[in-house]
Amino acid sequence: MTATRPSATAGIARRHKFLFPAILQLLALINPAQAQDIELELPVDRVTVHPRSAVVTRSGQVQIPAGGSTLVITNLPANLDPGRLQLTIDDSAVSFSNLELREAHQGDVTNEREDLLQEQLQSLQDTRGEITDRIDTAQSELDLLASLTDNGGSSGVRPTINGPELEELITVVSQNASAARERIRLARIELRDIDRRIAQVEFELSQVATRERVTSQVRLNLQTETPTSTAIALSYPRENASWSWLYEGRLDTGNQELNLVRQAAVAQGTGEDWTDVALTLTTADAYRNTRTPEMTPLFVDIFQPRPLSGESRRVPAGARTLTLQSDQIEEVVVTGSFIEQSTQYLVEFEITGRVNVTADRQQHIVPLDRKPFNVDLIARTVPALDENAYIEARFTFDETTPIQDGRIQLYRDGAFIGDSYLSLWLPGEDVRLPFGVDDRIEVERFPEEQQSRSGGFFSDGVQEDRVRIEVTSRHAASVPVEVIDRVPVSRNNEIDVEIPGDATAATETDVDGEAGVLMWRFTLAPQETEVIRHYVRIEYPSDEELFFER
């Protein structure tokens, strides 16, 4: 058997076979502008809504060929901040570089809903113009018919018409005038309906209008050794989006239980609808000040009278202050409608399932949960300002995650009694929540008779006020009661304020840190009346006059 070896020509062919793909790959790296373009439109998949903004995430799958290519993500909103774009590709074998943000101009608005409403508005306006033309035509007919029945118009010449012709003319004029007036009436009815529809479309348009005729696209160079299919996501911030708390406080006075119903109101007018998205609400506010305020020098000088009108004066810049609030606890709470994740400084709520939030600037309500609290019921009254007692539900907030501030609608035993504002609840805080007037507590405040009918005693250098407060309970069970009043606080060493010994001693002074505010606390049995004698005596120089400032 004779052995043969390959010819030189065959060896060269084999070498070319292996070198050719490598050369193509090298050329792609050297000249990426000739790389294959992959156009991709990513749908909105996830949205994180901040109190005054949102972060939108678009995601999807992309097929990437081996070698170099250019990915073009199209139909993105205009005016994106390139510094805040975030791009992720799941396949770590794919490298990318040279990310570029471009704008693409187009004739139509980028919001499909806005485009549709614009077309509807134009059609309605065309219809309105046609109706007004019919009214003008009918009115012209009436004017012409009227000219046939006047005294010859401005010429004063009256046409000669015999009896039968006159009768026929009157009949024709009457019939045509009646028909013209009927057309005008019907057209005006149509016009009113068209105007209502135009107003509705204009309102809807104002909710979604962005009038953007520019879209953005992101371009970036990709490189991979083997073909792959991978997930890709692009995130960017958007303004004109917000969320806020909507609470319901439902008080059961029989069981002394408060149920706090938490809901979130989400609104957005970004120009892009969020359809079937994963929604997260966060308390992190991107628009709050991020820096600690700096203390500046404080100068003191002799007071200068305010200049007259027209004179210029310098106004010194005041120091700015900032109050920061933060959450304190780290935890994850899973409920049936959301997943709550919190750190020391923020709380996030991942809404279960997929939701739709259209770009109409209307509030979309997202129910979250219901929190029960056992409470104490107390009747509090400030007779000097209002002779009513008000029910307050009180408890210690022992949850680990704060309750943010927001609007709250109040229900007492199933009946709506009004709304209020719920302030921030922090862990361990004593909470007071109002629930309207207690009609079964009677409060009277009147002056005790002394030397003047007003209940005050006055002489040179002495003023004494004597007031009696009577509180009666008509409840079937004992009720805790708190009565609030005040005594003047002296700002001058020559003014002496004292409470006489025969006055009812207050349970607490300087209530809630307010100087001079007094509280009497007691429990009223059924049909029992508590009497409070609230006296105050003020001594001051007899040649001076008292001045009270609230």
For the residues shown, what is the average pLDDT? 80
Gyration radius, rounded: 40 Å
- Flag low-confidence runs: 1-33, 310-331, 451-455
Quaternary structure state of the chains depicted:
single chain
Helix proportion range: 10-25%
**Biggest beta-sheet profile:** 9 strands, mixed
Shape assignment: extended
Number of DSSP strand runs? 29
Structural category = alpha+beta
Strand content: 35-45%
The total of helices stands at 3
Distance between the first and last residues' Cα: 123 Å
Describe this structure as you would to a colleague.
With 550 residues, the chain is α+β, with helices and mostly antiparallel strands. It has three helices and 29 strands. Strands 2, 3, 5, 8, 11, 12, 13, 14 and 15 form a nine-stranded mixed sheet that branches. Strands 21-18-17-25-28-27 form a six-stranded mixed sheet, with no helix packed on it. A five-stranded mixed sheet has the order 16-10-9-19-20, with no helix packed on it. α2 runs antiparallel to α3 (163-208).
